[in-house]
Amino acid sequence: MLPVKRYPAVFASSLFVIVLAFMVAATVHSTQGLFVYPLDDSYIHLALARTLATSGTWGLYPGEFASASSSPGWTVLLAAIAKLAGTHLLTPLILNLLLGVILCFVLDYGLRLVRPQSSPLFRTFSLLLILLAAPITNLAFIGMEHVAQTLSMLLLILFAARVLVLPFEQPISPRLQFALGSAAFFAGALRYEAVFGLLPVVVLLLMRRRVVSAVLVSAAAAAIPIAFGIFSYRHSGLWLPFSVMMKARVNRPTGGTWAGRLWEQTAGGTFRPALLLPVILLAFRWRPQRGLWSLSQLILLLSAVITALHLAFAPTRWLMRYDAYFVALFLFASLCAFPYFGEEHTIRFRFLALPRDRQLLLSLAALLGLAIAPFLGYRIAVGVVRGPMASFDRFEEHIQMAWFVARFFDHDAVVVNDVGAATYYSHARFLDAAGLASKLPAKLLHEGHAMTANDLAVWASSNKAPIAILQTDWGYIQRLMTPPGWIAVGQWKLARNIVFADRTVGFYATDPASLARICHDLKTFDLPRGVVFVAAPEVCPATLTRGSFR
């Protein structure tokens, strides 16, 4: 029989699987039986893993290096699975489902570790809140590395806190030391944002004179990024992945300083209570005789620092995939640190027994908790509903692009700015104008200037690319501008795009010789009912074409 202490984790993980199954079923129903990931980036990882598993090349094509992934560890994991079991569309989804179940049990372990007196009901509520509001369900549905990132960061702060609460004179057990080093290793391998958690952990370890642990954590976390940086530099002359460089440039917050960027990220008011609540709870739980070194206070401090660092230096967009990990940590830490009154007394009388200053702090914490409630409710609703909606958008946009290329340009070079699904579903050779999967734009950026329209034209001509397919509403493409010699043949108009602002896919003939071919292919291709093809009348005679559903 299952131990009673495991019931919350079993219940939460079961609900997690049910919600994820509902999201998958809703997607498959709307896309005529094909499962579609809600972000094009998911297909980049699949394509990279397939190439690595089959040819040993880190890139989209055998023998051609491309550092298109910002998560070396996730790419290697997918490639290892592909090597053993073949490349399958659902591999990332199934892997995330398993990782999500493991995360439920780790969260429950953390709650029992920090709050051993908490009831099964409280732990069940806490697990469900974190899973749905972070939202972990949405991260699993996206099919990228963010569930694994959340798990590794949670383990990092749990093991670090366990080390930090030990007295100076007490040695650290080899088992705990290994666990801490392993968590740091996987956190560093999965996401470069792991530095936001590793930096405060190392600082606190040094404050506790745990020099060996600090060196271990630093070395373990840096192992994969440094090894991959050397590997990347040998093949491209660049230390960082192309995707990290390009996204840092294109999506950088506009604030000039870290404080300005932090203010910009919280300008909407969404994250301000999330930043203040840990501070209030930390002040409430502070005891001068004990200082900082208790499990709940350390976890609370680490989660607050991680949240602030991420908001100051990294984006928080696109189906909440960048910010979900620190929201999960923030919720976990707050639930661990919120005052426990005990089941044998009512909250009211225990509250009145507190000193006046602690009553005030607890009241402020409760008010902030209420202020955060609408924010959490929004994340729960969006996390369940918006993922399948975004998948349908990707079906109408990126999957149709991929099928169009596979049907008409499967052995050509094609200029695009979204390369994931197109690479996964076709054999064409893509020139990625956004630079995530192609070296030239990243190299130009590294040398101090962004790609220009003339650079793009020369690049396409030298690779004999007859067609360019670009999301023309995207600000980056608008700033880049299409080369003067290219001919606009037509556009696909999308009814909706809930993740990105762009709703137009533009088709360009890079030279007059390919114009008639592209025009004919666009008219021939059947589109879903929600997508409208609008031809350029002066070069591709047609008024308005609606295709039948594929």
Structure, explained:
The protein has 550 residues and is an alpha/beta fold. It has 2 domains: 4-259 and 278-388, no CATH class; 389-546, no CATH class. It is built from 22 helices and 7 strands. Strands 2-1-3-5-4-6-7 form a 7-stranded mixed sheet, covered by helices on one side. Helix 1 crosses helix 6 (136-142), helix 12 packs across helix 14 (295-313) and helix 13 packs antiparallel against helix 17 (356-408). The radius of gyration is 25 Å and the shape is globular. The two termini are 50 Å apart.
Q: Which features would summarize this protein structure in a list?
A:
550 residues; alpha/beta; 2 domains; seven-stranded mixed β-sheet; disordered C terminus
Major beta sheet, strand line-up: 2-1-3-5-4-6-7
- Distance N terminus to C terminus? 50 Å
Shape call: globular
- What structural category arises from helix and sheet content? alpha/beta
Task: List the total number of helices.
Answer: 22
Estimate nothing, just give the exact number of structural domains: 2
What is the CA-based Rg, rounded?
25 Å
Average pLDDT: 87
Total strands? 7
The string of secondary-structure elements, in order, is HHHHHHHHHHHHHHHHHEHEHHEHEEHEE
Q: Secondary-structure blueprint of this entry?
A:
Blueprint: H1 7-30, H2 41-55, H3 72-85, H4 91-114, H5 120-133, H6 136-142, H7 146-164, H8 174-190, H9 195-207, H10 211-236, H11 242-250, H12 258-265, H13 272-285, H14 295-313, H15 324-337, H16 347-352, H17 356-408, E1 413-416, H18 420-425, E2 429-432, H19 439-446, H20 453-462, E3 467-471, H21 475-480, E4 487-494, E5 504-509, H22 515-524, E6 531-535, E7 545-546
Parallel strand pairs: 1-2, 1-3
Antiparallel strand pairs: 3-5, 4-5, 4-6, 6-7
Helix pairs in contact: 1-4, 1-5, 1-6, 1-17, 2-3, 4-5, 4-6, 4-7, 5-15, 7-8, 7-9, 7-14, 7-15, 8-10, 9-10, 9-14, 11-19, 12-14, 13-14, 13-15, 13-17, 14-15
